[in-house]
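Need tokens for this chain, all 176 residues.
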Amino acid sequence: MDAAHALTGNASRQCGLTLIELLVVIALGVVLIGWAVPGLQAMSARQEVAAEAHRLRVALSLGRNTAITRRSVVIVCPSPDRRRCNMDDWSAPLAIVLGPLTGTDFAEGALLRVIEAGGRGVSVSYRQDGKPVRYGALGRPAGHNGTFRICGHQDHGAQLVLSNFGRLRSGGSMSC
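Here are the structure tokens for all 176 residues:
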């Protein structure tokens, strides 16, 4: 008799949530999400700027190392079509080109590597004189040094400074 009573006692017990408990949990979830989303958006904007700065560092370091290794002139420039340099948009794919340019066009077979474009909505500007970054055989961009300004969403930005000796340093964060 005790075993039968135990079975019916457990069988009549219901498991689950009431409507009020469910609504409280949903309301708490909405409040937490509303509190976290602005922080996530700011973090995402900072991450996009950091990723673009890293992409520029990789392209410029690879260009400098290639110039030193091959003991020749290497040019790093934005190239959306992979045939010529277009200095207007440094957030475009970056081309690493062996030898001097003829105007803005590459020589046949001179394209060594393309570093693909990074995130959406990040803009990169470099000197306004229309010159690409040109490394000599010793890895020095004499006369082609300058500051890259990277601007992302929510007014987040960073600077990369290319010295006359070919070294890159972070110029710190900036507002755009």
